[in-house]
Amino acid sequence: MSALAAFGVGLATAAILLTLVWVIQLFTRNAGLVDVVWSAAVGVIAAEYALLGDAPAAARILLAALALTWALRLAGYLAKRMRGAPEDSRYAAAREAWGAKADLYMLGFFLFQAVAASILSIPFLVIAYMPEAPSLAVALTAIAVWFVSVVGEGMADAQLHRFKQNPENRGKVCAQGLWRYSRHPNYFFESLHWITYVVLAIGAPYWWATLASPVIMAWLLLRVSGIPTIENKKASEKREGHDEYVRRTSAFIPWPPKQ
Q: What is the dihedral of CA 10, 15, 18, 24, to 10 degrees?
């Protein structure tokens, strides 16, 4: 199968999965499931490309292993976090703002998410169709980047979860562990994760196309749906010590706090 046809399969897969989520939220009135399924869909697309591509088996197996493990960890964490919780404030606010057309607009948003998943998955396509397997040095470097990013994001998620579980921390800002050095270490490591495939694709004919994914992900998290939606809150909604935490702590890249 050609790379273009494989891309079509990936896009169709994402669109079908997210349309199913849209149908489910018609009954549950909770759109938060889209975050779980979106993460899983990206992993599924990577597996599809690995099966359909004509790159050496070593490259495709490594691609599938890295992407699926990342996707399953993230989707599992998000599913656990949303279990029994009310609808995420982002989607609740959108539903209220859209009014009577909320369901229709939500479908459009979900399909946009499917397109975004396909675009972000382009590095998987490049790797699945590269003519030669990456060298041992390149593969080990990619694995090292992947390990640091996935373990780092998992640690950040676990530290925040433990902090929130402690009743004594209610209304306070988490400034422990990785959160002492970055206000959003999970976002930093999520962006770093996409560098994995830039490294793994070194030597591929369309290697340059893999650069788009980490740039797009960082832009989304820094400027669109990540940090802005969390930090642009009313003064009454801010946690105790929020302003001082913002003043001394790096927004994205982990860095020693200001004195």
A: -130
